[in-house]
Specification:
single chain; 197 residues; alpha+beta; Outer Surface Protein A, domain 3; 3 domains; 3 helices
């Protein structure tokens, strides 16, 4: 479609003589230069009227840019997740080594030959120890005398001894070599006063 061209701006499309002649004559109508012809509408002001193809290209570019940004964000999230996962694995392996070392130390303490439990004043109140290759647990009173003993005899029979304030055994409950229960009681001199097999 062709449209007439608006009067040209001073100095554009006019010869120097015609522009000088028209400067003083403001009331007269300006005539367009006969060399100017009608120009198609699309080419009059380039950039003002974009075609549909240009708009489609812009939308396609924006969609590609949006897709790329989404892809980069997903990759960034995956990388962060991988770093966190690696930190957790390294931390777990290090923690496992620490636990293993401390477990070895605890096992060494449990494997000791004697265990002593002290009260607030520093007095021994419990002994767990080996007496000539047999285990014995003793509970002590405040003066350090054994009052209760629990252990094994040399023939691997279990026993429980109750002692008086002087540390003498007054009662014994045990299993015999034939695995029969036995209860024995003693006087203050250690003489048996009661015996049940």
């Amino acid at each position: 479609m062709l449209t007439p061209v608006t009067p040209p701006i001073k100095g554009i499309g006019m010869s120097e003589n015609s522009s000088e002649a028209n400067q003083g004559d403001t009331d007269s109508k300006q005539r367009p230069d006969p060399e100017l012809r009608a120009v198609p509408l699309d080419t009059q002001h380039p950039g003002e009227h974009e075609t549909d193809d240009d708009l489609i290209d812009t939308v396609a570019f924006q969609e590609k840019l949006h897709t790329r940004l989404d892809r980069l964000e997903k990759q960034n999230f995956r990388m962060k997740l991988a770093v966190v996962f690696m930190i957790l694995i390294v931390g777990y392996l290090g923690f496992d080594q620490i636990i293993t070392e401390s477990t070895i130390v605890r096992q060494t303490l449990v494997e000791s030959r004697e265990l002593k439990l002290l009260d607030n004043n520093g007095n021994a109140r419990l002994f767990l120890r080996m007496y000539s290759r047999v285990p014995v647990l003793q509970l002590l009173d405040t003066s350090g005398k054994p009052r209760l003993s629990l252990g094994m005899r040399f023939d691997d029979t279990p026993f429980i001894d109750l002692s008086d304030r002087t540390g003498r055994t007054r009662a014994t409950f045990e299993l015999t070599e034939k695995d029969e229960p036995a209860l024995r009681m003693f006087d203050e001199n250690g003489e048996p006063t009661f015996n049940i097999n």
